[in-house]
Input
Amino acid sequence: MAKTRAQKEEMLSGLVDKLGRMKAAVFTSIAGYTMTDADALRAKGREQGVELTVAKKTLLSKALEQKGLVPEKGMLQGSILATFGMDDEVAPAKLVSDLSKGKDKEGIKIVGGILEGKFVGPEAVSALAKLVSKHHQQGRVVGTMYAPVSAFVRVLEAIRAKQAA
Output
């Protein structure tokens, strides 16, 4: 069923809004994308603060153009899944990378993405997917900051225990 002009304008404004709020985006060719994949991916995406959209290439191109982003010629070919990371730059790359690992190379493949307001190729998205998540990095920082305090407390406790003995 064809979409009305109002529906298309609403979809376009939604895409422009997501492009404005995102920290990173990943574009994936989804020839082998099934409804089972879609349901699993949406559920994982919600947990990680990632929004998924399958949009017409013309609407996606117009939304990108309105945000001053011009994709490389031929990047957005076929059916495209746009994955927007709202909280974490790494999350959309990890999510799509995990999906594409179990699929045929021709079916689902990363075609590019947006990072720091610039288009990047599939190699950069794959490298980004190999990084640890933002929350994991924050945990490491907190652990590193807490380590000296923890060591100091253990030393004081050892001194107290030695004096008590």
Remarks:
- The first strand starts at residue 24 and ends at 30.
- The chain has a mean pLDDT of 82.
